[in-house]
């Protein structure tokens, strides 16, 4: 997706200069502007790192989430290095749900909005 330089920079900074999916810091150049849909993020376009871009392909965010959820099982099946690292406690399996960076950012923002709009938290002069 082609964007003008200023819009592209604003998109890169939308989630703190990080990939909308994995949260890794995006370089100034060498990332992708991808249409992921208004149902996922405001504006529907996300800044995505090259790793997430190539792994996701044309998958929807939900299909990408399902792909990512299989990664540990795949690594256990196909990588003796991973199995050895697991055996020696160098890595651990958490079974945590896949949360994209844009979801974590949104949750943080709404928590901030809730706390700043809560009069009980802002009424410091009452005491
Ligand atoms: Zn990424």
Estimated structural class: mainly alpha
Query: What is the N-to-C succession of helices and strands?
Result: HEEHHHHHH
- Which blocks of ≥5 consecutive residues have pLDDT under 50? 120-127
Per DSSP E runs of 2 or more residues, the count of β-strands stands at: 2
The strand order across the widest sheet is 1-2
The main sheet comes to: 2 strands, antiparallel
> What Rg do the Cα atoms give?
19 Å
Strand content: 5-15%
Mean pLDDT: 87
Question: How many domains?
Answer: 2
Give the number of helices.
7
Helix content: 40-55%
What would a concise description of this structure say?
This protein is globular. It has helices at 5-13, 50-56, 61-69, 71-78, 80-87, 101-117, 119-122, and strands at residues 31-35, 45-49.
Could you explain how this protein is built, in words?
By secondary structure, the chain is mostly helical. It has 2 domains: 1-58, no CATH class; 59-97, no CATH class. Helices cover 49% and strands 8% of the residues. The chain is built from 7 helices and 2 strands, in the order αββαααααα. It has helices at residues 5-13, 50-56, 61-69, 71-78, 80-87, 101-117, 119-122; strands at residues 31-35, 45-49. It has a two-stranded antiparallel sheet with strand order 1-2. The radius of gyration is 19 Å and the shape is globular. It starts with a helix and ends in a 5-residue tail after the last helix. The model is unreliable at 120-127 (pLDDT under 50). Bound molecules: zinc ion. Residues 19, 21-22, 24, 48-49, 51-52 line the site of zinc ion (ZN). Zinc ion is lined by residues 19, 21-22, 24, 48-49, 51-52.
């Amino acid at each position: 997706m082609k964007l003008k330089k200023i819009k592209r920079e604003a998109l890169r900074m939308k989630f703190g200069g990080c990939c909308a999916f994995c949260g890794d810091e995006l370089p100034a150049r060498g990332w992708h502007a991808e249409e992921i849909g208004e149902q996922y993020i405001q504006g529907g376009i996300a800044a995505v790192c090259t790793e997430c871009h190539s792994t996701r392909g044309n998958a929807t965010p939900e299909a990408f989430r399902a792909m990512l959820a299989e990664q540990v099982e795949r690594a256990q099946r196909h990588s003796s290095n991973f199995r050895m690292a697991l055996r020696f406690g160098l890595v651990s399996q958490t079974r945590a749900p896949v949360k994209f960076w844009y979801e974590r950012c949104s949750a943080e923002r709404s928590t901030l909005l809730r706390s700043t709009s809560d009069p009980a938290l802002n009424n410091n002069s009452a005491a």
